[in-house]
Specification:
The chain is of the alpha+beta class and 162 residues long. A four-stranded mixed beta sheet has the order 4-1-7-8. A four-stranded antiparallel beta sheet has the order 3-2-5-6, with no helix packed on it. The chain contains three helices and eight strands, in the order ααββββββββα.
């Protein structure tokens, strides 16, 4: 019984560390690209439509889970590890959630030509870990998506301490 508690504490520690790393990565991403450069990277929707990008960053938890993305009650696709896709939509109000977390619903009000970003975000609670939809600003979203396509290689340290 003691080892079960140990595994649970270790799991939560890993989950919290991963969540903090993702938050720090998002903060660095916001500083990395000026908004005008980031917005040039996104393909615009047709003039009379809006576009919603959905993405999920690679993370060590819930690898096998690929929940459906639900927009106004209809599945528009599933989102696996490292996936990015978009859907064009008529301007208007939309409710978006992931089938893995039907309680966390985000509201989007889209205008013609607008681009919105929704990330599948790992949420850790007491006794639960799930993927939820989260609206992300364009600068952070484009940086995270770009990093998924072109991962930054970590340089070897110049000196090793022993």
């Amino acid at each position: 019984m003691r080892w079960v508690r140990f595994l649970w504490v270790a799991f939560l520690g890993l989950a919290l560390t991963t969540g903090l790393d993702l938050a720090a990565s998002a903060a660095r991403a916001a500083e990395a690209l000026p908004a005008d450069q980031a917005l040039l990277s996104a393909e615009p929707p047709p003039p009379d439509l809006a576009r919603i990008y959905f993405y999920r960053q690679p993370a060590p938890l819930l690898i096998a889970l690929a929940p459906d993305v639900v927009v106004n009650g209809r599945s528009v696709g599933s989102i696996g590890m490292g996936d990015v896709f978009f859907r064009d939509a008529k301007p208007g109000r939309y409710q978006v959630f992931l089938s893995a977390d039907t309680e966390h619903v985000i509201e989007l009000t889209l205008s013609p030509g607008e681009i919105s970003y929704v990330r599948a975000t790992l949420r850790v609670g007491l006794g639960t870990t799930r993927l939820s939809a989260e609206r992300i600003n364009a600068v952070v979203a484009l940086q995270e998506i770009n990093e998924m396509d072109h991962p930054v290689e970590q340089a070897e340290p110049k000196q090793t301490q022993r």
